[in-house]
Automatic annotation (TrEMBL):
GO terms for cellular component: plasma membrane. It comes from the Eukaryota. It comes from Cardamine amara subsp. amara. InterPro entries: Transptr_NO3_Nar2. This is High-affinity nitrate transporter. Residues 1-22 form the signal peptide. Pfam families: NAR2 (PF16974). Belongs to the NAR2 family. One of its GO terms (biological process) is nitrate assimilation. Keywords: Cell membrane, Membrane, Nitrate assimilation, Signal, Transmembrane, Transmembrane helix. Involved in nitrate transport. The chain crosses the membrane at residues 176-195.
Length: 206
C-alpha cells in the first residue's frame, strides 16, 4: 500500500512539473501586453564600439501600461538583434515562443518594478558581437513570467536602431610592436644593402 502511495505521489509531482514547464514554453510574445513600457535609447552618432561606448536607456510605465501594472514585479532590460543582424544567423533567430526566442540574448539589467522613470548609462559589454541593435524591456510577474514589454523601436524593428562594432581582438601594444618590427626590418634591409655595397667596393680595390 505504501508503495502505491509513493508511486501516486511521484506521478502527481511529475505531472505538476510537466504542466509548469509546458506553461512556460507556451508563453509567446503576442500574448504579452505590448507597449506597456515606454523605452528610449540615446547614444552618440556613428558606429558604437563594444567595451567602450555607452547607451543611455530610459524606461517608464506607458499610458496603457497602468491597466496592468499590478502584475509587474520586476523589469528586465535586454539588448536585442535587429532584423538585418539576424539574416543567415539561426542562433539569433526570432521565435514567437519566448523560451525559443534568440532575439534578445544580452541581459542589461533587472530591477524591481516601480512606476518611476528609470534611466541608466549602459556600457556595451566587451563580448557584444558586431550588429545592429535595439533595446527591449520586459515586465515580469511574481512567478517569473513575462507579462508585458516595451521596446525602443517600432513593431517592424526598423527605427531607432544603433550599430555596434565588436572588439577585433587586437591590442594597441601589438600594433606598436608590429610597427616597430616593420621599421626594424626596413632599416636592417637598408643596412644590408649598404654593407654589401661596401664589401663589393673593397673587393674591387684589391
Amino acid at each position: 500500500m505504501a508503495i502505491h502511495k509513493i508511486l501516486f505521489a511521484s506521478l502527481l509531482i511529475c505531472l505538476l512539473i510537466q504542466s509548469i514547464h509546458g506553461a512556460t514554453k507556451e508563453r509567446v510574445l503576442g500574448d504579452l501586453y505590448k507597449g506597456a513600457l515606454d523605452v528610449t535609447t540615446k547614444n552618440r552618432d556613428g558606429v558604437l564600439d563594444a567595451g567602450k561606448d555607452k547607451v543611455t536607456i530610459t524606461w517608464k510605465l506607458s499610458a496603457t501600461g497602468s491597466e496592468h501594472e499590478s502584475e509587474f514585479k520586476t523589469i528586465k532590460v535586454k539588448l536585442c538583434y535587429a532584423p538585418p543582424s539576424q539574416v543567415d544567423r539561426p542562433w539569433r533567430k526570432t521565435h514567437p515562443e519566448l523560451f525559443k526566442d534568440k532575439t534578445c540574448k544580452h541581459k542589461i539589467v533587472a530591477k524591481s518594478y516601480d512606476n518611476n522613470t528609470h534611466s541608466i548609462d549602459y556600457t556595451l559589454e566587451r563580448d557584444i558581437p558586431t550588429g545592429i541593435y535595439f533595446v527591449r524591456a520586459y515586465a515580469v510577474n511574481e512567478t517569473g513570467h513575462e507579462v508585458a514589454y516595451g521596446q525602443s523601436t517600432d513593431d517592424a524593428k526598423k527605427t531607432n536602431l544603433f550599430s555596434v562594432q565588436a572588439i577585433s581582438g587586437r591590442h594597441a601594444s601589438l600594433d606598436i610592436a608590429s610597427a616597430c618590427f616593420s621599421v626594424f626590418s626596413v632599416v636592417s634591409l637598408i643596412f644590408f644593402f649598404i654593407n654589401e655595397k661596401r664589401k663589393a667596393k673593397l673587393e674591387q680595390r684589391r
